[in-house]
What we know:
Elements: E1 18-23, H1 30-43, E2 48-52, H2 59-63, E3 69-70, E4 74-78, E5 81-85, H3 88-94, E6 98-101, H4 117-126, E7 130-136, H5 144-151, H6 161-165, E8 169-173, H7 177-185, H8 192-200, H9 205-233, E9 245-250, H10 256-268, E10 274-281, H11 291-303, E11 307-312, H12 316-326, E12 331-335, H13 341-346, H14 351-358, E13 363-367, H15 387-410, H16 412-415, H17 419-457, H18 469-517, H19 523-534, E14 538-543, E15 555-556, E16 563-567, E17 571-576, H20 585-631, H21 633-647, H22 655-687, E18 695-697, H23 699-708, E19 719-721, E20 729-731, H24 733-750, E21 758-764, E22 767-773, H25 784-787, H26 806-816, E23 820-825, E24 831-838
Parallel strand pairs: 1-7, 1-8, 2-3, 2-6, 6-7, 9-10, 9-12, 10-11, 12-13, 19-21
Antiparallel strand pairs: 4-5, 14-17, 15-16, 16-17, 18-20, 21-22, 22-24, 23-24
Amino acid sequence: MAQVSAPPRERRRPPGRLKVYLGAAPGVGKTYRMLDEGRRRAERGTDVVVGFAECHRRPHTEKMLEGLEVVPRQRRSYRGMEVTELDLDAVLARRPDVVLIDELPHTNAPGVRNTKRWQDVEELLAAGIDVVTTVNIQHLESLNDVVEKITDVPQRETVPDEVVRRAHQIELVDMPPEALRRRMAHGNIYAPEKIDAALSHYFRVGNLTALRELALLWLAERVDETLQRYRADHGIGGVWETRERVVVALTGGPEGETLIRRAARIAARSAGGDLLAVHVARSDGLVGASPAALARQRQLVETLGGSYHTVVGDHVPAALLAFARAENATQLVVGVSRRGRLLRWLTSQGVGDSVVEGSGDIDVHMVTHERAGRGRALPVPGSGLSRTRRIAGPVAGFVLPVLLTLLLRAVAGPLDLNLTSETLLFLLAVVGVACIGGVISALLASLTASLLLNYTFIPPIGRFTVYEANNILALVVFALVAVTVATVVDGSQRLSRRAASATAEAETLSSLAGGILRGELDVPVLLERTRETFGMASVELRPRHRESEAVRPAASRGNGDGIAVPIGADSELVLRGRPLPATEHRVLTAFAAHLTAAVERARLAEAAAEIEPVKAADRMRTALLAAVSHDLRTPLAGGWAAVSSLRSRDVSFSEEDREELLATAEESLAKLNRLVDNLLDMSRIQAGALTLHLQPTALAEILPLALDSLPEAPADPVAVQDVADAPAVLADPPLLERVIANLVANAARHSPAGRPVTVAASVLASRVELRVIDRGPGIRQQDRERAFAPFQRLGDTDNTTGLGLGLALSRGLTEAMGGTLSPEDTPGGGLTMVVSLPAAPVPNSPGARSGRGSA
Length: 855
């Protein structure tokens, strides 16, 4: 009997790997490099397909497609045009090993499953397909506003930084600005008619240099993150001098500013050097730490371009070195001790000396200052007992009384001391031992001193017996006084240590509260502050499983799982690194409370963001109802009165009067029609339901129609410049006509007599800019955005002139057509409204699309 075997189950693929070609500007060769890698992988036998490649009619790039399998694109109707998009389902059905997808930040046309192309890429990666893609630095979300300030060109298509950071490999496609401009001049990037405008605007040497620096710095930070993760995974504690990182230790003393400036000069000597200031809040206290001084020093550090950090540590030198190694610091700047020579001789080794001994491969700079060696001359009581003192105390408790006995016997003849003096000297020795080793050492010293005093100085000498009752009393009183004094000294030390620990906790919490007041409310910022403060290798916020809800705060999980603290109802804070002493648990609990509040704020902010569109629509309806109550009634009443008069049989009108009444009715109804059209279009824009029919449109054909549709002819004829030579734009002709008419009417209303409105056109890269220029009073900088809000009439005293929808409607219609409307100052006074629209694609060009992708 034949056996029928079940078909083998398809093994689930591991997640795919993402490779990103990162460029500083269009035209550096990202798409070419992506296709070149695809060809090389295909030659090695890898199954490679091209999911989407935008060649922009560049012959060398188009030639790289030869020999590669191209997955057909899906076609969509968008704004009256047919556009092509990545066919995600077709690629998933094809299941290649590698897919090449250009323009990661691209926004898909309506109707496509995902809004953004990077979301398509994430689906492919989840299906186990490797992806090679491209992105320009200006499209990264975190740098979007910075690039706009540099280039004055807004970038509306962005990709979250985290998507690119998660890439398995990021390769920079770099080109010097001069070489890129030569490529542009040779026609290898843009069409010939766009070259001059691009070279004089976006592709200026300064712009390209700044974008190149942004790309290099962003990639350097990403490489640094990878390096730190590698060092942590492999337990590498040594310093790798990949770039200079200078750490300066601050105590809150007056020498802090000197140290900061010295460290800043050291960091500035190397390109890309980092300055980090650190203050250690230790459990045994820090004498002279002034919160006000630390606040001033923090401000100075941030002014010099550095960062300020606070860490908790029982031992200051160890905490400093641990922080420096965790940050891969190459140099450490510490100040020369403020203690005098006597104090340094009587007490333990100073912070600077300890740091030098344990620094290893970190360079330590001991910086002198005006306060060096001018501190207090006596030890400060209350410092904690180090391991050395815990060992030295009992030894001193035995050795010091013996040495004192030998000394007193040697000088007994010349000095002729009595029993009282000898007892006081032994008492002084016991107090000294208490200061060194605490009460246990003092008890040992008291016992040793009592026996030696009895045996050596109380008759009968040489025996542990006493003949006189007074001597017995003196010996008992000595022992009691010695023990009492030692207990008081040790208690004072304990209280001092507790107070110092509380001070350190308060200082750390004050620093945390100060960061929150400065706006450091984000959960990632608080997590990083927690990691730095407690000197941990890593800190993460993760969902808490049901079975772990009973875990106590700050309870160790064991097995290297770290320390877990509950955050809210369903999350926990996990710290990995060193064991956490019990004295630091309260501070950790405070950090956890702040994180809980931050997580809750983030959730509330997300909920508020979802409600905001509803509130905006409600405000729009309220404003609309308030406006139409007057502005629609006026033309309606005028037209009603004119028609009623004409229909009246009681009055006989002359032909001239009838014509005037008909004109009034026509004018009122025309005004009413315009108001209703504006209101309907504004409501469609707000609802996202405006229907567009985009097509190549010549400005020279639209401008006369717009001027003819003005409700009132301008007092001075409108001047026209370079409109006839401007290329066609991609727009909806009736809507563009209304935009131009609204802007010209608004400019004419504010222009003085004899200063006509000017309409000019120019080309910038792949866009056409239409400028409506007036010589009126202009709009203040702080009022410009408010002028585009519906129902605003800035500067108007007559509220019967309209609903105030002109600028709001013009901007809404312009943005719906894929353009922008922004105000500028007119040189010499006045306001210029700039309408920027995408240039229409050249007919029958390969790959002609809506022009929304980046080069």
